[in-house]
Amino acid sequence: MQSRLPEYCDLYQLADKAATMSGNWPIAKMPRLLTMLAADTGEAKAELEFGKKGRTRFIKGSVSVDVEMQCQRCLNPTTVGLKAEFLVALVENESQIEKLPEQFEALITEGRHFLPDVIEDELILAVPIVATHDSQCSDYVKAYEVVPEEYQQEAVGKKPNPFAVLKDLL
Ligand SMILES: [Zn+2]
User: Which of these, 22, 54, 59, 84, could form a disulfide with 126 (CB 3.0-4.6 Å)?
Assistant: First the structure.
């Protein structure tokens, strides 16, 4: 079983030590991501590699998780696999962002940082604008469709009445 990611870390220190880590973080603890989802179940799995390239400290990583989103065609839940690979440079202020080599995203931080926020940011970027079922929604909808009770009763009421035949005879 994988362990939880650490919470507050000194990112500059981890980069200087060229640390690597892997860990999980529950969806239920990502409030910004949660606003885009239909359920709070699941745990993101992350692999992180800290390091330094020239004077640039960075985090290279990948994160993935299956989440539930509302299908925009049928409005039922659908499972969406979120996956992100990233290369984030750690910078102290905005003026440093311009100097970064192109391949880097930037994270402004003083060092001490809530590490799961990095994961959450990347997952938010990976959320599709519109989620839909891969195949036909109709298969899915049929399985979940419930016939309203009034309709069932009405159907029962329409059964031929055996006395109706007698009435015709009279
Ligand atoms: Zn659907």
Answer: 84
